[in-house]
Amino acid sequence: MAEPTRWDPCSITPEQIGDTGLDPDHRDVGWGRGIVVPDWDICRFRPVGVDVPYVFVVKSSLNRTVDEARSDSGNLDGLDTELDGRDAFQYRTDVARSIIDCNLAVDLPSGIVVFSVDYRHVGDGVDPCPILHRHVDDLKVALPSA
Q1: Thinking of the domain 9-142, which architecture would CATH place it in?
Q2: How many other C-beta atoms can be found within 10 angstroms of the C-beta atom of residue 123?
Q3: Which stretches of the chain score pLDDT less than 70?
Q4: pTM beyond 0.85, yes or no
Q5: Contact 96/67 with Cβ under 8 angstroms?
């Protein structure tokens, strides 16, 4: 039996990114120079423009689960949900004063994907969760079949 493979969040095509209203020509691949996080692959996207209000982050792991996201005490305002029949969990974190976030952990055939909006214009009253859901609804077709 073949080993399961981790879904690559950077496999989302530029066309799929553009269809969400994000910049199809911009993607940050990986964690950054010299940073290795063996459990996770990550890709970041952003809206078109210079002073962008948020970053859309997609990360995946073979070794993590939606239940782990549920049980993590650092995940706030948790909401059990589904994405096209897949187990999912929405939550926020409070890890930085410079952003407000909204995250959706979604079960994959092998592992998990976490979609996040890291909203940078803290204090302007915008809830990042509707932004997150709009992008996730547009990109759920890029996920591997359940």
Answers
A1: 3-Layer(aba) Sandwich (3.40)
A2: 6
A3: 1-2, 146
A4: yes
A5: no
